[in-house]
Write a structure and sequence with these properties.
The chain has 472 residues and is mainly α. It contains 21 helices and no strands.
């Protein structure tokens, strides 16, 4: 009863605050600023009561996003200074990535000694990634051609091309970037794909040595993976603070009014991503037979972390745990998800095609359909090296602009709302990679939902019978 009452109190407080803001914004009623401020913080107090009652990390992350936005709006200077907390959270998450990927991949490959399955998962994953990301690129291309968001934009007075010049990436550069030359350097630079390549080869090599030589290293990697998951659990207690600080900084230094600027471009991206989720990922999930409700509940926390921090890496450890919980074997999660972080960034690839054509439109460079296809096919290659870190797609976009002779100033304009765009595309990246692990697990015939879920209906019937017996 208490749980429901706190939820109702929070809902009423939020509704009243939203109603007052609406009436004041449209000048229906002139409400004093102090009253609006009080109503907003009263709504936040209601959310806090609900959070203390529910005791869910996901709930606290969502509440902290609201609190962060309010701090950034009411106290922008304080919000900007809170960025250090979000950086602390991201730094701690990045310490998890390399040892977690190494341990889970090596144990997953060498622990089962089924090298044929590794090969199968490899080609199935690449095939799936390539098909889905290609569809994402074409949806982005279609969206920007329909909205024409770049048309009519002129070079702002006083604007200068102050962005760093990026040389066009050749095919050789892309291939060489995949392979590590120094694993310590790859770890230090956060090169996820290079860490994955090293771990896969190490796992295969370990599977090929004698049993007495293999077992000590195997036990060490198994222990390391378990420790890193526990390490993740500890860091996640700091997640609400880190996430709230990230939102506070974004709103504090940009202001909520940034939504009015370049609104057409922002809405084009959000609508395109929504179409991709409903028109591509949802049908895939339904065809494959993914338990939608359980899947959405499992990804809620990693997606909210990705949205607030604009970093796919920040959500990776929690996403891997979530997929294991719903029935994907660790060896598949460990192989597919980190590989997807370089080859299956659906939201980023959609954004890149959309942004590249936006730059051409803003620069007044009419492109034929053939030229647009050439840009898309170039992005199909260059986007595969994008790291799961904030603003990494900017480097790819600058490289694409350089390759096709486009000016840089439209990209400078995009930077004004890039964080808001990054929130959406990063969230879609995480959703796409989580779904990919389930798809590959189903394809391999190794998706096994927890026994508790299968028994849940029977347990409910037992509880009903027990209640009836108690009444009699």
């Amino acid at each position: 009863m208490k749980f429901k009452s706190f939820g109702i109190v929070a809902l009423i407080a939020v509704t009243v605050s939203a109603l007052l803001i609406f009436l004041d914004h449209y000048m229906i009623v002139d409400i004093p600023e102090i009253a609006l401020l009080f109503s907003r913080w009263l709504a936040i107090a209601g959310l806090f009561l609900y959070g203390f009652q529910k005791k869910s990390l996901t709930t606290w992350i969502l509440i902290s996003m609201v609190v962060g936005a309010e701090i950034g709006n009411d106290f922008p200077e304080a919000g900007i200074k809170l960025q250090v907390l979000s950086k602390v959270f991201l730094k701690m998450i990045k310490t998890i990535i390399a040892p977690l990927l190494f341990a889970t991949l090596v144990y997953g490959i060498a622990g089962h000694s089924d090298l044929k399955q590794v090969g199968r998962m490899g080609w199935k994953s690449i095939l799936y990634f390539e098909v889905v990301t290609t569809i994402a690129l074409f949806i982005g291309l279609a969206a920007i051609n329909i909205s024409q968001a770049g048309m009519g934009i002129t070079l702002p007075p006083g604007a200068h091309e102050e962005l760093e010049k990026v040389a066009p990436q050749t095919f050789n550069d892309i291939i060489l970037h995949i392979f590590p030359e120094n694993i310590a350097k790859s770890i230090a630079e956060g090169q996820v794909l290079q860490i994955v390549i090293f771990s896969i080869i190490f796992g295969i090599a370990l599977a090929m040595v004698r049993e007495d030589k293999r077992q000590p290293m195997l036990r060490a990697t198994e222990s390391l993976s378990e420790v890193m998951f526990k390490f993740t659990n500890i860091i996640m207690y700091f997640a609400p603070i880190g996430v709230g600080a990230a939102i506070a900084y974004t709103v504090g230094h940009m202001g909520l009014g940034i939504l009015l600027n370049l609104l057409q471009l922002l809405m084009t991206l959000y609508v395109a991503l929504f179409v991709f989720l409903l028109g591509v990922l949802l049908p895939i999930a339904l065809i494959v037979g993914v338990p939608i409700k359980k899947f959405l509940k499992a990804i809620a926390e990693p997606v909210s972390i990705a949205f607030a921090t604009t970093s796919s890496e920040a959500a990776l450890p929690r996403a891997m745990e979530a997929m294991e919980r719903i029935g994907v074997p660790r060896k598949i999660v460990a192989f597919v998800m980190p590989t997807g972080y370089s080859f299956n960034l659906d939201g980023t690839t959609l954004y890149l095609s959309l942004a590249a054509i936006f730059v051409a439109q803003a620069a007044g460079m009419p492109l034929t359909f053939g030229q647009q296809l050439l840009i898309v096919f170039t992005l199909m290659l260059t986007s595969k090296g994008v790291a799961g870190v904030p603003r990494a797609s900017l480097v790819i976009l600058l490289g694409t602009a350089a390759s096709f002779g486009m000016p840089v100033w439209p990209i400078f304009i995009i930077l004004g709302i890039d964080e808001l765009m990054d929130m959406a595309r990063t969230s879609v990246n995480v959703i796409g990679n989580c779904l990919a692990t389930v798809v590959i697990a189903k394809w391999e015939g190794e998706f096994h939902p927890p026994v508790d879920d299968l028994l849940a209906p029977d347990e409910n019937r037992i509880h009903k019978l027990e209640n009836q017996i108690e009444k009699h």
